[in-house]
Amino acid sequence: MQQAVNEAKKAFERDEVPVGSIIVYQNKIIGRAYNQREMLKDPTAHAEMIAITQASSYMQNWRLNNTTIYVTLEPCAMCAGALVQARVKNLVFGAKDRKYGACESVMELVNNPRYNHQLNILSGVLEDECRNLLKHFFLERCRSG
Fold it and tell me: Do 125 and 93 meet the contact criterion of CB atoms below 8 Å apart?
């Protein structure tokens, strides 16, 4: 999870919402990303989506079976849906997203029994560090107007 936090710090430095993500397969990082919506002018350029693309390229497959994604903020509906579609096995995240979270907070897309795939979830990992990074980012943006 510390590697995902490091990615979130990169986003912060680039004036992006500080969310970072890594995907691990057989103890190796196969996807690593941070939010890049502003830089790429792309609403889908969330850390999770970019990491999924990298991991799929590494695996040479859209199915990311037996992988674990670590992300600093609870995934939104778009990212949660992509995790289900990609067949990611485990989701580990830091801070809950009480506005857009689609894994535990607002809705539970990754464990919907109607889907043919569900994820194992571990939440609250390095939660304070992840939450504080986000708070600091938004406080700084409010001050700068």
Answer: yes
Cα distance between residue 107 and residue 14, in whole Å: 30
- How many Cβ atoms sit within 10 Å of the Cβ of residue 33? 26
> So which residues are the catalytic ones?
48
The answer to whether residues 56 and 86 touch, using CB atoms and an 8 Å cutoff, is yes
Q: What is the pLDDT of residues 59-101, one digit of tens each?
A: 999 999 999 999 999 999 999 999 999 999 999 999 999 999 9
Question: Rounded to two decimals, what is the model's pTM?
Answer: 0.95
Q: CA-to-CA distance for 135 and 137, rounded, in angstroms?
A: 5
Q: Does the structure show a pLDDT above 90 at 141? A: no
C-alpha angle 129/132/137, rounded to 5°?
Answer: 130
Q: How far apart are CA 67 and CA 54, in angstroms?
A: 13
CA nearest neighbour of 43 among 81, 16, 61, 68: 16
Radius of gyration of the chain (CA): 14
- Which alpha helices (H) appear in the chain, and where do they start and end? 2-13, 37-40, 47-59, 77-85, 127-144
